Amino acid sequence: MKKLFMAVIALMMTLSASAQFYIYCSDGNVIRVDSISMVAPVEKPNSHDWVDLGLPSGLKWATCNVGANAPEEYGDYFAWGEVEPKTTYDWSTYKWCNGSYDTHTKYCTDSSYGTVDNKTVLDKEDDAAAVNWGGKWRMPTKAEQNELRQQCTWTWTSKGGVNGYQVTGPNGKSIFLPAAGYRIDISLYSVGSYGYYWSSSLSTDYPDYAYNLDFGSGYVHWDFDGRYYGRSVRPVCQ
Fold it and tell me: In terms of domains, do 161 and 218 share one?
């Protein structure tokens, strides 16, 4: 096997692909190379796969939930604005309040619900997708979830024995959203029947609530619920 000088190869890669090159081998042979073809790698932000569904926004959706390793796995559950799963989901354990729905310390637009800061979209450090996956990943906004709902075809199905929706974009490509249910207090409810996916958007009218994508076998819509609920997170990237 001929040994090639790596320095020569590195130099070749910096030159025009249309030029003619000669590689001088250690055994005295010379190899002529007429062209070099270089292919850019497929982008995988922080090693997680995404699908371009052909949406008008150009947004890419991840193939699995935060905390999951496959599309049909439920993954972890997060309170809105928290970045780690936990055992108990209620106001007493919620990070951004002092124990009740009307004592919020961050993300509040009405003094009746706590300290007003008028923040209506999660900061990066409070975004479960951004913190757990890094790179370009983040949670979708309410508007981006609504685009997914309106622009795609939703088919209730089963994948690996798990119920959920096959969501097919305008270009024919699809993702699977498992019906992972939700957590309140120490219990898990509605697994296999309903799915609830947090957006990064606060409800401005009722700042103790945040928006989520909500679905069952016969419907898909967005709704808002108490921020302490444990919901799924499906990341996106641009």
Answer: yes
Burial state string for 66-78 with b = 16 or more CB within 10 A and e = fewer than 16: bbbeebbebbbbb
65, 142: one domain: yes
Q: Which residue bears the tokens 């919901």?
A: 231
Residue with tokens 């981006």: 144
**Pick from 41-50, 105-114, 136-145: least confident:** 41-50
* Cross-strand partners of 166: 155, 176
* Residues 6+ positions from 185 with CB-CB distance below 8 Å: 88, 89, 90
Residues 22 and 111 in one domain: no
Place of tokens 């922080």: 46
Mean pLDDT of all residues belonging to the chain: 88
Alpha carbon distance 40, 18 (integer Å):
18
Taking the C-alpha atoms of residue 4 and residue 58, their distance in angstroms, rounded to an integer, is 43
Q: How many domains does the chain have?
A: 2
Give residue 1's pLDDT: 44
Looking at the structure, do residues 84 and 202 belong to the same domain, yes or no?
yes
Amino acid at 235: P
pTM of the model: 0.81
* 203 φ, ψ (degrees, to nearest 5): -80, 115
Return the percent helix, strand and coil in the chain, to nearest 5.
15, 35, 50
Q: Could you give the CA distance from residue 47 to residue 32 in angstroms, rounded to a whole number?
A: 37
Clarify whether residues 104 and 148 are in a common domain.
yes
The residue assigned the tokens 């016969």 is 218
In which domain, by residue range, is 6 found? 1-39
- Are 30 and 118 in contact by the 8 Å Cβ rule? The answer is no
